[in-house]
Amino acid sequence: MAIWNLGSINADMVYALPHLPAPGETLAALDLQQFLGGKGANMSVAAARAGSHVCHIGAVGADGAWAVDRLLEYGVDTRHIAEINTPTGHAIIAVDRQAENQIILFPGANRAVSSEQLGQALTQADSGDILVLQNETNMQPEAAKMGRDLGLRVCYAAAPFDAAAVQAVLPFLDVLFLNEVEAQQLQQATGKTPMELGISDVIITLGAKGARHFNAETGETVDIPAHAVTAVDTTGAGDTFTGYVLSGLDRSLPMPQAMALAARAAALMVTRPGTADVIPDLKEVQEASF
């Protein structure tokens, strides 16, 4: 089994600030670090570190070879990442002393994946494999439909949130990931509760309160608690959670068990500054004492 990820690849420029800037305010940064990031890359690294075979579908510019090398180093299959004549995506991330963040995204090459590239990749997938998408690339509805037609388990992380983008892929989804605010926005846009969306599994992350699973087939709702830790940087925690859940499903874990493992991974992640480069591996997650 494998996880196929049509996902973004970014250079994350992380600036430590005394507080998040107000409109019109100029602040001097206390520190600057560069990491591999992008919601797609983060999820690929998390799922690979959790023990799954992950094939990343994406694009970088000529300035992004280092990012592809880094993904390969972390165990991700990079054969379906194209180098194109568009700058690599990047993010400017401000993190304050309370570990809250503010992010500006430049999509770049992430929005230039070709239909030929997508088709060549997904035709190599096997029925029952997992396909995951986020709202940081183009070709989302096309990929979701292709995944459904090929018998893949289609999953969508609805961030950065856009109601129209979510509704375009809803008919093809098996699993939907939302945070608490996104879930409220989607319900306002559709007039439907998580149980009424027509999706087998909806997972809503609740920050320090944990996560909630809605099982449309059984009508059951299960809460998975978070672990109490001292956070230093919340960037990438949700992506780590999602990647670990997907890996758990890929390895045939029941959803509550996959989510519990993912909650441990996310708790470790927020104790570390950075994004994809500091996502914990499965051994670290299993051995962590909370």
From TrEMBL:
Reported regulation of activity: Activated by a monovalent cation that binds near, but not in, the active site. The most likely occupant of the site in vivo is potassium. Ion binding induces a conformational change that may alter substrate affinity.
Location of this chain's protein in the cell: Cytoplasm
The keyword ATP-binding is assigned to this record: yes
Pathway: Carbohydrate metabolism; D-ribose degradation; D-ribose 5-phosphate from beta-D-ribopyranose: step 2/2
Lineage top rank: taxon: Bacteria
Binding note for cofactor: Requires a divalent cation, most likely magnesium in vivo, as an electrophilic catalyst to aid phosphoryl group transfer. It is the chelate of the metal and the nucleotide that is the actual substrate.
Residues where substrate binds: 10-12, 38-42, 136, 239
Record family assignment: Belongs to the carbohydrate kinase PfkB family. Ribokinase subfamily.
Protein's recorded name: Ribokinase
Organism: Parasedimentitalea marina
The gene coding this protein: rbsK
